[in-house]
Amino acid sequence: MSDLSALEASILNDIAAASDEAALEAVRVAALGKKGSVSAELAKLGAMSPDERKSYGAAVNTVRDRIAAALADRKAKLGDAALDAKLAAEAADVTLPLRPSALEAGRIHPVSQVTEEIAAIFADLGFSVAEGPDIEDDEHNFTALNFPVGHPAREMHDTFFLAPGANGERKVLRTHTSPVQIRTMRTKTPPHRVIIPGRTYRNDSDQTHTPMFHQVEGLVIDRGAHIGQLKWTLIEFLKAFFEVPEVEMRMRPSFFPFTEPSIEVDIRCDRSGPEIRIGEGKDWMEILGCGMVHPNVLRNCGLDPDEWQGFAWGMGIDRLAMLKYGMPDLRAFFDADVRWIEHYGFRPLDLPTLIGGLSS
């Protein structure tokens, strides 16, 4: 029996040492094949007595079963190892890279951001936001605003006219947000203190003009409104918007049909470097138009100019964005170029506040 135990131990060692399935198969054939060492032990049973055959046969069969079980276990382990090695060698990453979240990838357009900045400033000054339609009639866009018949602004080189309606009236894409001033004064009881941001349309296109652009106007109607309040309001807005401690403002006489007197406003700036710096330097730059609301406009809205006075102003939102954030070409605002919006856009949570900073 000692020889049988030694044979079993030797075969089990060979099984454990087999490095692959081919080597393991060679061990199996050498042990359990027709001419294998275990098969040779079974062949000895024919020369033994019945008692010896019974005892020795049972021992050999037990050894054969243990060897067969060891072979099966080792074959399973070698198969798993071979599969793991193959998978590792042939691995291919077919997954897409993780997409950034909307908060990381999304951008707020500079026009939207600057509109929010303007609204935040004027809200702190006690103004509310008013809105109106983009398609206007002649009454609200021109006549009520004291544009006389034949005024150049009514002509095709400035205004987009729509096809005549059933009544022959030709509506227009509003050339300014001033019609909302008329709607406010006609539908609400004074005093008024509103700003009016929105889209406007004029037939013009170059580096600093586009057929559709964004404008914000302000309107104050009160019994004691005067031009000193207008000047203070504009100075406080410009200081907050450009985030500078002081703004020097120059007011020049001008003409607008809906204001009297009418004023063009310049601010001191420095143009000597690559960027325009507001509030310093020796240069002047026109920034907006304003004035006291014309008495005829007040009368057209049912207000007595002897009782009510008002002032208004208007400025381009796109131009304010260009000045503050260094954008050289207005046309790029409307190109829908994702590279431009990634560069100049704002993250969704960059909400302008007077405490946290408008452009922080």
Instruction: Return residue spans where pLDDT drops below 50 for at least 5 consecutive residues.
Output: none
Could you report the average pLDDT, rounded to the nearest whole number? Answer: 86
Form type: rod-shaped
Number of strands: 10
Description of the structure:
With 360 residues, the protein is of the alpha+beta class. The chain has 12 helices and 10 strands. It has 2 domains: 88 residues; 235 residues, BirA Bifunctional Protein, domain 2, CATH 3.30.930. Helix 6 crosses helix 11. The protein starts with a helix and ends in a 16-residue tail after the last helix.
Any chance you could write out the topology, listing elements then pairs?
Layout: H1 2-17, H2 21-32, H3 37-43, H4 50-89, H5 102-105, H6 110-124, E1 128-129, E2 135-136, H7 138-141, E3 172-173, H8 178-187, E4 192-201, E5 212-222, H9 227-242, E6 249-256, E7 259-270, E8 277-278, E9 283-293, H10 295-300, E10 309-316, H11 317-325, H12 338-344
Parallel strand pairs: 1-4
Antiparallel strand pairs: 2-3, 4-5, 5-10, 6-7, 7-8, 7-9, 9-10
Helix pairs in contact: 1-4, 2-4, 6-11
